[in-house]
Amino acid sequence: MAQTITLRDKKKARTKLTLLQAGLELIGEGTFRTVLVEDICQRAEVSKVTFFKFFPQKEDMLVYFMSVWQAERFVELADSPKRGWAAVRYIFSKVAEQSQKQPGIMLSLISFLAEQSMHPWIPELSPAEMQLLFPEREDTEEIVQYSLHDLFSRAMKEAQEDGELAECLSVEEGVVLVFTTFYGSYLSAHLCQSPDYMAFYDMHIKPLQR
């Protein structure tokens, strides 16, 4: 049975998602560090008090972005026959696609993670947020349980089952290297001033394939 969501919860979820969208639009080719909270609030038409209720620290918005982004990828792959390396390449292609609109978001995320002592905990999206993001889905409880690590783990298990994972690699090693590629290839393309992020992703996963 679908969970009943109050109007208050829907309003909160809509405001939080609107703030995220405003932040993404303002990043553009810049970095999240240079985006002002005041500008985000002005674009989203909410007060700073409201902003900090949702995001006690401005950087919390990057973590929220990760929550939404990985949920979107799970849904897209759940509706797709892609598996193994095809699933990994699809995830990478979505990063490359977003780089055309907001090239600064991935660099901001890399910079943020570099300052952390460990990978931040990614909070689950609320039922109201899930309903707004995926109004046609009924399996939202399953979606929020999956992280990017889970998606990569599943893909590496599939690659191994299909005989497409390099013989010298275990599934766990494959996951670590795919994560390294996820962030590292993007940074390499940026440092090489190449707009073809997907080419860099393909180059880095080629040695991992059989």
UniProtKB/TrEMBL annotation:
One Gene Ontology term of the molecular function aspect: DNA binding
InterPro entries registered for this protein in UniProt: Homeodomain-like_sf (IPR009057), HTH_TetR (IPR001647), Tet_transcr_reg_TetR-rel_C_sf (IPR036271)
Superkingdom classification of source: Bacteria
Pfam families: TetR_N (PF00440)
Entry annotated with the keyword DNA-binding: yes
Coiled coil: none
Keywords: DNA-binding
Domain HTH tetR-type intervals: 13-73
Annotated region of DNA binding: 36-55
Name of the protein in its database record: Transcriptional regulator
